[in-house]
Amino acid sequence: MPTAPAPTPWGFPHHSTWDPDDDLVALGADLEPGTLITAYSGGLFPMPVTMDAEDQLGWFSPVERGVLPLDEMRVSRSLRRSARDFEVRVDTAFDEVVARCGSPDRADGWITPAFARAYGRLHRLGWAHSVEAWRDGRLAGGLYGVSIGGLFAGESMFHHERDASKVALLALVDLLSDQYADRRVLDVQWQTPHLASLGVVRRPRAEYLEALEQALSVPLPALLDVDD
């Protein structure tokens, strides 16, 4: 079981006060474990933002949330074939996955050293996990995210070989598809064209928050049972 972090001293605004047309809900606070767990449990996630030429910590809850229904991931025959070429592991290279997701070579990179350290702390407390695709002893792709009850909040993914990140996502879906699958939530923040091609759909904020409330009462998935 994850280790409970120290309570956050920060209070986030109640969702009834959120601007219905703005993904950005709040600014400030910190990236301490207790703050992150409180935020994710309330439907928020952090990203750095620049406002008035100043870098700040933003807390987002998209008006249209990107969610991957576990029974709707689109898996092509070629992806199924590719999956046989990789070894899937869980939590064997978390820091490396985060570092590669945050590579400065990525044009849309937002994972700063402070974010990497924050999620590293969450991982060591048992709240953050990586799913990895390996080939020939090398890390070929993977993803990481935060797991709270039946919520898996995907943060980022990367690949160095074709289909490697998709294989990691497919493995995650398989790991979450247990007896509680109908109440689990696989959150990917925003729907992009790439994610839409894999089956990610948009859910209105209110619908997402309702599903999240149900998901939080579900036991954690057996993330380490990668051979099952």
From TrEMBL:
<dbReference type="Pfam" id="PF03588">
    <property type="entry name" value="Leu_Phe_trans"/>
</dbReference>
<dbReference type="InterPro" id="IPR016181">
    <property type="entry name" value="Acyl_CoA_acyltransferase"/>
</dbReference>
<dbReference type="GO" id="GO:0016740">
    <property type="term" value="F:transferase activity"/>
</dbReference>
<protein>
    <recommendedName>
        <fullName>Leucyl/phenylalanyl-tRNA--protein transferase</fullName>
        <ecNumber>2.3.2.6</ecNumber>
    </recommendedName>
</protein>
<dbReference type="InterPro" id="IPR004616">
    <property type="entry name" value="Leu/Phe-tRNA_Trfase"/>
</dbReference>
<keyword id="KW-0963">Cytoplasm</keyword>
<keyword id="KW-0012">Acyltransferase</keyword>
<comment type="similarity">
    <text>Belongs to the L/F-transferase family.</text>
</comment>
<dbReference type="InterPro" id="IPR042221">
    <property type="entry name" value="Leu/Phe-tRNA_Trfase_N"/>
</dbReference>
<keyword id="KW-0808">Transferase</keyword>
<comment type="function">
    <text>Functions in the N-end rule pathway of protein degradation where it conjugates Leu, Phe and, less efficiently, Met from aminoacyl-tRNAs to the N-termini of proteins containing an N-terminal arginine or lysine.</text>
</comment>
<dbReference type="InterPro" id="IPR042203">
    <property type="entry name" value="Leu/Phe-tRNA_Trfase_C"/>
</dbReference>
